[in-house]
Amino acid sequence: MKTLTDARVAIVGLGLMGGSLAAALRGECRSVVGVARRRETVAVALERSLIDQGETDLETGVRDADIVVLATPVRTILHLLDVLGPWLPHDCLVMDLGSTKARITARMEALPEHVQPLGAHPMCGREVSGIEAADPTLYRGRTFVLTPLPRTSPRALALGRALAEAVGARPLTLGPERHDRLAAMISHLPYLLACALVGTAEATAETDPVVWEVATSGFRDTSRLSASDVTMMLDILLTNQDAVLEAVQACEDQLHTLTELIEAGDEDMLRTILTARRNRRSSLFT
Question: I want to staple 100 with a disulfide (CB 3.0 to 4.6 A). Which of 105, 170, 193, 240 is the partner?
Fold first, then answer.
């Protein structure tokens, strides 16, 4: 297995995540090959010098790769894992950037024995999408979760860590089920809450449309995630259903507690809880 600096990296999917990874890896590896279905996407990536080579044919794009990174929506990753096997070179490291891990790593088990699978999920992203949004600094300072399989070799895991570090991220190894439970709480639930907030405001607007005129920075900031790519989020929610529903229930319990305190007019307890939440949030993001 080659080192990262000697590796030819093929990135399948040139949206925000794949395009940003390609840009960040330029100069950190031997070459970056970008694979996308649309010629226009490949053309933009080449024009912006995000990749060294572009392909629209999957087999051509991956057949000489030392590292293949699948940077598409989750259910597309699952499909790609079903068809990629015969085209992958010996000792190739196969990674993904999918936001859920249990189903992906289970599907990776079926890859040929001559390749090394490694699940991954960089904990970053934006509500924008597409190659036009690619940013080489996207991964900098962010946690890059790695979910090795039992068959993943120490050398393959080390190469995955090297890739994460090369783009400025902090690698963290987790089991896939644990990752999915945590991601549901801190990533997938916030998306649903943002959508619910917009839906609540829309219901109000049916009888009082002035609500949109008074919606300013607070509403904008808390509803930001509702602008995320819908296809991507559908794939996430429907491949992590149990953990997402568990997170929703936990949030409902929190809201129920706050509702009861407001109904009771219990200012002291409300102050205690709200202050604790403010302090926790401030300690996380200074």
Answer: 240
